[in-house]
Specification:
Layout (H helix, E strand, L loop, with lengths): L58 E5 L2 E4 H10 L9 H24 L6 H24 L5 H14 L4 E10 L2 H12 L4 H8 L3 H4 L4 E6 L5 H9 L10 E3 L2 E12 L5 H27 L7 H12 L2
Antiparallel strand pairs: 1-2, 3-4, 3-6, 5-6
Helix pairs in contact: 1-2, 4-9
């Protein structure tokens, strides 16, 4: 096990991204039997050509006289994407049709027994309809309006607002006692190579196998005692006294110091798209709320809602 003296958290700044839940069907995933492996001696067979997808209006089945089109299958596959995630592509169309058949038969059974007239069902149906329309507005009025220029502007703004930070490239040797660490420092003073001692004696097996190499890290990523000592060293030097932390005693060597580089735009473009989506979504919600009359009778609940919305 590698000692967890490195604090959790990515080297680069975590980007906040709002997550908006969209309406999806809820259905049980079907278990699939694994395919038998091909004999080892045989060459893998060529993948079959993907079948041509029928036009959306193509009728693929009828259920008690009601037609099912390719468009119905496409909708089922999209809404059941999570349940179908483990299926091979060639099986998804059949699974979608099977799901549509089950859903329509169950729906017909519910209507035959008058379950569609149940007040609780009517309320739920209305709520689900509202959720579907909510998602449609997000797709058409928010997500579809995002441009690459807006994403790039959000990225540039974040980079400009982020203060420059330094980072160090360090190695360390971790041992259990102060005496062991002092003996290692004496060996270094005598000319022994840091990397060789780390491979032989460091109890941090992960970095030890790489000559104690920890790579580059910025402030806030290591435990305080380790970080303070590392940032105080000049490149090429090592600690002359053992550095104690909760994990033991460290001998630290700094290889290099540099200014931390921001992530490349292409690496974080999707994250910034989510940021723009979130901002546009809440801007639209605010516009609609400002134009609407919303009364909340319960004073405590009204305050709680206001506090929650203020944090968005």
């Amino acid at each position: 096990m590698i000692p967890s003296f490195r604090r959790s958290g990515a080297l680069r700044a975590t980007l906040a991204a709002g997550t908006i839940s969209l309406f999806a069907w809820h259905a049980a995933a079907q278990d699939q039997a694994p395919a038998a492996p091909a004999p080892a001696a045989q060459a893998p067979a060529a993948a079959p050509a993907a079948p041509v997808k029928p036009a959306p209006e193509t009728v693929v089945a009828t259920i008690n006289g009601e037609t099912v089109t390719q468009a119905d299958l496409d909708l089922a596959e999209m809404d059941l994407a999570q349940q179908f995630a483990q299926l091979p592509p060639e099986q998804k169309r059949a699974a979608s049709l099977s799901a549509v058949i089950e859903i329509k038969l169950m729906a017909a059974e519910a209507k035959a027994k008058g379950l569609d007239k149940d007040p609780e069902f009517i309320k739920r149906l209305a709520f689900l309809s509202d959720r579907a329309m909510h998602s449609r507005v997000i797709d058409k009025e928010v997500a579809a309006t995002i441009t690459d220029a807006e994403i790039r502007a959000a990225y540039d703004k974040q980079i400009a607002a982020t203060p420059p930070a330094n980072e160090v490239h360090a190695r360390h040797i971790l041992v259990k006692t102060k005496e062991e660490a002092q003996a290692i420092i004496k060996d270094l003073d005598a000319g022994k190579k840091f990397e060789d001692i780390a491979k032989e004696k460091s109890t941090d097996a992960g970095s030890g196998a790489n000559g104690g190499d920890l790579g580059y890290f910025a402030a806030g990523q290591m435990v305080p005692e380790f970080e303070k000592a590392a940032f105080a060293l000049e490149p090429g030097s090592y600690t002359k006294e053992p550095v104690q932390s909760q994990f033991g005693f460290h001998v630290i060597k700094v290889e290099d110091k540099r200014q931390q580089q921001p992530p490349a735009f292409d690496e974080v473009k999707d994250q910034f798209r989510s940021t723009v989506l979130r901002d546009k979504y809440f801007a639209l919600v605010k516009k609609l709320r400002d134009a609407a009359k919303v009364d909340i009778a319960d004073a405590d609940l009204k305050k709680a809602v206001a506090d929650s919305e203020a944090q968005k």
